[in-house]
Recover the amino acids of this structure.
């Protein structure tokens, strides 16, 4: 996960919770978390990068409109989130000793 931007990491963590989110809901979650509205172009760029890497996939709605697509984490993306969470747990445990 160290090659990802913080925004991409946050997107993966949100999606790693197991939810299937439409792009609008995912963007709202990011905006709320960061207390600032991420520009649509920047948000789309980071989603596209995660799709290209294979960490998430986009499922279009029935109208075929990509703007209303659902973003789903892939198994590859889930492995990256699990590895990140394990690293954080190990770090936290070592600091508590």
């Amino acid at each position: 996960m160290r090659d990802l931007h913080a925004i991409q990491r946050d997107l993966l963590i949100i999606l790693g919770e197991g939810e299937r989110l439409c792009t609008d809901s995912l963007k709202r979650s990011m905006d709320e978390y960061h207390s600032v509205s991420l520009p649509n172009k920047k948000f789309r760029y980071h989603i596209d990068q995660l799709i290209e890497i294979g960490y998430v996939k986009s499922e279009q709605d029935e109208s075929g409109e990509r703007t209303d697509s659902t973003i789903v984490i892939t198994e590859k993306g889930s492995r990256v989130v699990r590895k990140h969470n394990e690293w954080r747990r190990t770090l936290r445990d070592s600091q508590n000793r």
About this structure: The chain is about 60% helix and 10% strand. The first helix runs from residue 6 to 15. Residues 30 and 64 are 24 Å apart (CA to CA).
